[in-house]
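Risk register update: the risk of archive-format incompatibility is retired. Evidence:
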Amino acid sequence: MFIDGQCHCANIAFRLDWQGEPRDIPARACGCTFCGKHTGVWTSNPRSRLTVTIRVEKNGAASTELPTFDNCAYLHAIAAATGPAALSFAVHVPVAHPADIVPPMTLAALSPQPNAAGWNNGNVSIALTAADEIGGSGVKQTTFSASGAQTISGTVVPGAAATVAVGVEGDTTLTYFATDNASNQETPASVTVHIDKTAPFVTFGAIVPAPNTAGWNNTDVSIGFTADDSLSGVAAVSTASPLVLSGEGSALSAIVTATDRADNSASYRSPLVRIDRTPPTVSFVGNTGRYTIDQTVRLTCVAIS
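Archived output:
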């Protein structure tokens, strides 16, 4: 990209050859009082080149005399060092590369990403990637540490990239920052990883009503339960408590599935119950229908349940 400019009389002109896209030009606010008053900004690019062209005229015609700039000692010094030209001459002034005073910036990327509730149910890898500003001194090192469920003492990795593995259940906070070759240190940033690898647990209560001494009920039975998860917490259960078991049978039960906020799930079977709500039937044989006085009658009875 070229940026051209000149003075009013066009005797002094410049061309700035800026390497890179315009959107990549980092404009920074200067900290001095003058630039603060005039909202001055500055930038730098060691790959760019500034060409200043000075046209020398005398009596309306081109001159080969050495130009003088009574009010511009800097340009006069440049002209004196360069020498006169027949019509014009160009001096190349490198764009000043100010001291690097801007710290780098680090991005942290989690893999895999947490779910919508912010939890992972497996190990997590954190990739730290630092970058210095365009034209800066470059990233020297990346520093990180971790606290919480998994602790990591302060670790320094040369360069702009580091990878941290987190696998302990619970909340782990990773703190990190980068330092460039000009000793500018980034303000520490942090990211917290939530890991829960354990499914919730379901606990069943007593059978209501309690079975009789033979272990049977003759009505519907309800069984209360609770679902618990000590890390991420319970997100959903497949049915509400209490369970209600109806029908008849000697081994009735139901399944309860619990899912936590980290997407771990497990299914549990309720205690077996026996329900018989049908009364027994009694039948007999030996009834002839008519009898004489003092006749002995023998009946055989059978009860079926």
